[in-house]
Amino acid sequence: MGGFMLIVFVLISSATTLPTNTGECSGEGQLCQFPFLYSGQLHYECSTRAPGGGQDLYGRCPVRLLNTETREASNETSDWVRCGQNCPLQRYTENSEIESHMRALVQQFPQLATLVEVGNSSLGQPIVGIQITRGVEEEREMLKPKVRYSGNMHGNEPVGREMLNHFAEVLLRGYGVIDTITDLVNRTDITIIPTINPDGFDRGEEGACSGADYKTGRFNEGDRDLNRDFPTWRDINSTIENMFLKRQPETQAMMNLILSEPWVLSANFHDGAVVA
After folding, report:
1. Which of 70-74, 200-204, 241-245, 271-275 has the lowest mean pLDDT?
2. How many CB atoms are closer than 10 A to CB 151?
3. What b/e string do you get for 107-123 counting C-beta neighbours within 10 Å, with b at 16 or more?
4. Are 147 and 263 in contact (CB under 8 A)?
5. CB 3.0 to 4.6 Å from 62: which of 24, 40, 73, 246, for a disulfide?
6. Cβ of 134: how many Cβ atoms within 10 Å?
7. Is the pLDDT assigned to residue 53 strictly greater than 80?
8. Are 117 and 126 within 8 A, CB to CB?
9. Lowest-confidence pick of 16-25, 51-60, 145-154, 167-176
10. What number of other Cβ atoms are within 10 A of residue 153's Cβ?
11. 93-106 burial, b for 16+ CB within 10 Å, e for fewer?
């Protein structure tokens, strides 16, 4: 998790006047102040390194800022509270909430984001994502690289799913505020798909960090490991039509997306006690 969060935090390198509070996250009955600047890093999520946090690893947020323009947070322990369940990255997000979040971001940032409807799961749940780039509704800029992030291919591996769901928010809210994020969105065409296996996620059990079968949520509803359902080098001489035969609905949906755009880079997030 640390490697990806480095993108969220370290890319945030320079900022001048920042927007006012961006959400309704609260803790201990008080409104959290997001984004906030603390220890040289701008946060759009709660921090485990907050004053008063010690070693309990609970996320905390400031409820008072030293400077409302720079969003610099107070260093006083009394000005920080433990984040509630409605704060980013404090709980696992339901499938319907992820779809609603993607749609809400598109509605709020129409010049930067558009909804990506990948397809449906075996049980008919929508698999959706978001495309983020400058001029997203215009013709694609020549040679602008297209990058794709996806997560939760194994339903019981939800950490990448949460990170991607939040990463979309950080990119959009940081645009025009953080130089590095603005440059990234201007120069790159980014597609984020938080979950490929929503059915498996529903079957998974929070706290169970291992398991490699249908019952634990790793497999899709068709009892298939989606990570091993895609064509391989052995299919190099097959026609595209034959490559689609006997694939799971989630796999076919992703294959259609993969073949529809000139991607230059993609990453699929895996996590858990054993990554395979």
Report:
1. 271-275
2. 27
3. eebeebbbebebbebbe
4. yes
5. 73
6. 16
7. no
8. yes
9. 16-25
10. 26
11. bebeebbebbeebb
Residue 234 has what pLDDT? 93
Number of Cβ within a 10 Å radius of residue 72 = 16
The neighbouring-strand residues paired with 234 are: none
> Residue 187, Cβ neighbours under 10 Å: how many?
12
SS (H, E, C) the chain: CHHHHHHHHHCCCCECCCCCCCCCCEECCEECCCCEEECCEEECCCECCCCCCCCCCCCEEECCEEECCCCEECCCHHHEEECCCCCCCCCCCCHHHHHHHHHHHHHHCCCCEEEEEEEECCCCCEEEEEEECCCCCCCCCCCCCEEEEEECCCCCCCHHHHHHHHHHHHHHHHCCCEHHHHHHHHHCEEEEECCCCHHHHHHCCCCCCCCCCCCCCCCCCCCCCHHHCCCCHHHCCCCHHHHHCCCCHHHHHHHHHHHHCCEEEEEEECCCCCCC
Q: What is the pLDDT of residues 217-263, one digit of tens each?
A: 999 999 999 999 999 999 999 999 999 999 999 999 999 999 999 99
In one-letter notation, the amino acid at residue 25 is C
Amino acid at residue number 250:
E
pLDDT value of residue 100: 96
> 12-16, 51-55, 142-146, 160-164: which range is least confident on average?
12-16
User: And the tokens for 5?
Assistant: 């969060």
